[in-house]
Amino acid sequence: MCIEEPELGLHPDALLLIAELMVDASARMQLVVTTHSDVLVSALTEVAESVLVCERIGGASSLRRVEAAKIAHWLERYRLGDLWRIGELGGNP
Fold this sequence. Notes:
alpha+beta, two-stranded antiparallel sheet
């Protein structure tokens, strides 16, 4: 199942519930979600390795899985969405 930008038209607090439902559903089916919401990405901090970051490199799109072990020191102080917003995860223009 593909869901494009579930944050559109929703209150940010509702995204926490949406994230829980997505994690639950992903145990039963393949789920692809696109987002520009740091709130939604932050809600996935506990399952960081389920997040893929899309970047445009040399005119081509590239997907890279977040490696929780490589950012463990950051995750002690920050949420995943915070790291994405400041550019630590990539995927920024």
